Amino acid sequence: MAGLVVTNTTKNRTPRLPFLRLKDAILGKKYELSVVIVGDALSRKRNTRHKHTPANILSFPYSQSEGEILLNPRQAKREYKKFKMTYQMFLVYLVIHGMLHLKGLRHGSTMSQAEARLLRRFSN
Q1: What is the pTM of this model?
Q2: CB 14: neighbour CB atoms within 10 A?
Q3: Which residues, 6 or more positions from 48, have their beta carbon under 8 angstroms from its beta carbon?
Q4: 58-85 tens-digit pLDDT
Q5: Domain that holds residue 8
Q6: What values do phi and psi take at 27, rounded to 5?
Q7: From its phi and psi, is residue 7 left (phi > 0), alpha (psi between -120 and 50) or beta?
Q8: How many distinct structural domains can be found in the chain?
Q9: Pairwise CA distance, residues 114 & 96, whole Å
């Protein structure tokens, strides 16, 4: 049973994003994805790279067909203007970025090109 589960651990509304369409386009229909909307405390706790700061997005691949993304909208709200995007578009970008990590891509030109292509596709 492949699919998507979105869980909100905050008191704020879950962002209205095309999670399922993004998952199917990037990871495939058979991929099992959990998206968890988190606040600063949980984001900071799970951030193993920069232990003292909350991350805007974290990706955890569990297998080739299963993974989890933690999305921190509060941190994204602090950062979106630096990226010259609307807040909503920055959230879409972060989810794309996280899913590409689940797919195995690392930071670099290949990932940047894929992000730009997917962002254009899902900006409508």
Answers
A1: 0.94
A2: 14
A3: none
A4: 999 999 999 999 999 999 999 999 999 9
A5: 4-121
A6: -105, -20
A7: beta
A8: 1
A9: 9
